[in-house]
What does this fold into?
Amino acid sequence: MLKGKEVKAIADCKVTKSIAKGDIIFSEGDMLNGVYCVQSGICKLTKLSEKGKEQVVKLVVKGELLGQRSVISNQAANLSATALNDMEVCFIPKTELLEILHSNNDFSFDVLLRMATDLKEAETTIINMAQKSVRHRLAEILLYLYNDFGVDEAGFLNVTLSREDFASIVGTATESIIRTLSQFKKEGLISTKGKQIKVEDKKSLSMLE
It folds into this structure.
């Protein structure tokens, strides 16, 4: 929990930035001079493999921070952040953030909890890739997008991911994702329009193994 003077200090130094869909907020290997707080929109955090293949690690939404681990550890960013749609982010300089972390134990603890949660999510992802089928993992991602980000007026998922993004998140080949989505359509679980996806049978999708 931030104190009144700390809230004012951040308000005085923060910079609000507009990020267009597809723009890179920061790249793997960058040294960051501050953190980004997502005010609206969604971005993906990705990691490049040794062969240059992009792996989606996490989707970041409103209220979450970007770059805090790099800033706190004073190391280069180990992930890249790319906007999936138009975003508004608030940039908080590194010096101000570190000063608050040193002086406010409660805030420091909250940041540590968030980082611990991120680590747990990463471990869960690794376990799921080893133990669950592609159908099961893809169904879970579709339900996650449906439950956490909602749908537009036409009923399509608010987050539009490429088939390559789905493959990266699920941990399989793009061809496998295309084939599995086609199977889901034939089974009446989803419908599609271009890259857009609509969940048609949430209950059955949640029961896949």
Summary: The helical segments are 4-13, 68-73, 94-103, 105-131, 134-149, 163-170, 174-186, 202-206. Residues 57 and 122 are 8 Å apart (CA to CA). The longest strand covers residues 34-40.
